[in-house]
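**User:** My hope is that you can spare some time for a protein that puzzles me. I have put the entry right below:
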Amino acid sequence: MSLYYFYLSYFLLKSSNFMILFLNSYHVSLCVSAATPTEEMNGAGNLMDFLDEPFPDVSTYEDFHTIDWLREKSRDTDRHRKITSKSKESLWELIKSLLDAWSGWVVMLLIGLLSGTLAGVIDLAVDWMTDLKEGVCLSAFWYSHEQCCWTSNETTFDDRDKCPQWQKWAELMTGHAEGAGAYVLNYFLYILWALLFSFLAVSLVRVFAPYACGSGIPEIKTILSGFIIRGYLGKWTLLIKTVTLVLAVSSGLSLGKEGPLVHVACCCGNLFCSLFSKYSKNEGKRREVLSAAAAAGVSVAFGAPIGGVLFSLEEVSYYFPLKTLWRSFFAALVAAFTLRSINPFGNSRLVLFYVEYHTPWYMAELVPFILLGVFGGLWGTLFIRANIAWCRRRKTTQLGKYPVLEVIAVTGITALLAYPNPYTRRSTSELISELFNDCGALESSQLCDYVNNPNMSRPVDDIPDRPAGPGVYNALWQLTLALIFKIVITIFTFGMKIPSGLFIPSMAVGAIAGRIVGIAVEQMAYHHHDWIIFKNWCRPGADCVTPGLYAMVGAAACLGGVTRMTVSLVVIMFELTGGLEYIVPLMAAAVTSKWVADAFGKEGIYESHILLNGYPYLDVRDEFTHRTLATDVMRPRRNDPPLAVLTQDSTTVEDVETLIKDTDYNGFPVVVSRESERLIGFVQRRDLTLAIKNARQKQDGVVSSSVVYFTEDAPQLPASNPQPLKLRRILNLSPFTVTDHTPMETVVDIFRKLGLRQCLVTRSGRLLGIITKKDVLRHMAQMMNQDPESIMFN
């Protein structure tokens, strides 16, 4: 129960500042604009003017542009107010209002069902295709190695991985299962299958859905912050990402499916948003659904519903109201239940590497746990810098023009080096599962090859520490080589033009390092139990050290060092173990890895890729401490042409069309006159274009010389003039404004907390300039001695 209150307090602390600033700032904005309540409702709520019915695509946004959170909030409030008032008119309207209220929960249910089903299908397909590289089941070719031997009546306990129904390719083709010739043939076919899978994956992505590549989490974070990327969450992206994710993971590349599953779940959320106008016509409401979908994606990726909700809150979401918290939890619950019903791993668990430990940890073990945290932080820093350098080289050189060859080359090198080592040959999830496992009496792994005392008679779960046998020492050498291989190859793999997640490779690096440290501590405790550090808690014949726990702590440390996750990471990891007993070691490692990594740079891998791609993302964790003012950042600057504005009642249709044609601005301030420059409001470029186009088609008398007016009453015009065009209802009468002496620290905080697209700079009601989100990002980059031109989008 205490954990529940902790998570709730964490959420409220994060969300309360947003809402308080939202309400206060919105009130100030209304006052500054000097708009009456009636004008505000007419101007910001209904985005139509000269027609009684809305025309299509008004108030929508163009590709690679940022949404206006305040406007979307205002539109949703007006929609809800209208539905509530109509619900009192008739029974049918009441039913419609109830359906509207329940539509959010229906969307969450559909997201959970589809994302859980897709995750189960992906897990089953990956399991089968991974084993297909080594052999085939003769009794049923669609069975994986494990499933094939499950169904065999000739499988023994000692040789449970061997059965007559499963044959390796060399045995099937030549009839010989052993020998140099069989090994070489199996080696060659392993590489061939890997190349085939990766080639199919990169070809499908390149031809049908270019947005299906990569992890997807950097783009999801950017989209949830209010950025528009058309097609990134589309139907084709969903289909191709699901198929190619199976191919990419099965090829044996050093990547995982957990990150892409978040992208897949968000595609499901976007798909179901299109079924309800409440979400399809409001980008702000759509992003609430996508936040919940991200939670469902992590839920099925790790079998951690609570961790998925916290991951969405901590890592990807930009705006997370309280109702989204409950809906995220419901979506994660349904997704986990659906995956559990499919049972893809056959162990009645949601993940392959679910473990349970039976030995408590001791305070003295915090020292190696913290050292693993230091290793995780250093690994995270090394990986981020090396991977970003390689990705930047890919973008700026000829290498980026040959994505297919790059994928084929990396796959060939990976398969060539991975096959000889049994710990790199198997899938990364299976490797992590073996590293996490505690050595019981029934384990047959090399890592459990200890020298047993023949007189030992203890319960299975309480086997004392024993001296390591030759299998353990052999495994340590192989794990050391696997660690070096994973560290190097993951740097070149992440970011290629195929679906590639980073969670599993990072966890694998940490699990390998942790298992090595765990075995070292275990053997020290056995051979030197009289040392002062072991004397008080590790007596001879006792089960003191659990190497699998060290692997789990190392996995958490490395994942935290790369992603900078803390709370959600710890929750995900203890949900994997099914108990709270080991939460302190996980917290110690996660916090240490974050401290160490933050000492070298605040950005995690996802934030670094956002910066690399130039997305307009304002991270709430970045601090702005420079003493600059709004006048230093606003446009127009000195020697720039004057600000493009519209007047309230003296601009013609031709003038507006010329202004739109000659500029690429997203909107235009509306002033009383060019002489006074008294601010009236702000009109979006897209709304203006659509309004004029629609007026020419449906309103008689509108010609190029018609006067466009934004006032309530038409201006006094000669009788010979053509009919004027009233566009007051597409005018935002309450644009957010600041004075020219407002500190940029305040302006940056306003842009972050309110999700503004732009704000206008005034002095005593007189318009001076405009600050856009892009201007803020470029100014911040300039203040940090970075290239301001790296911010490429609006």
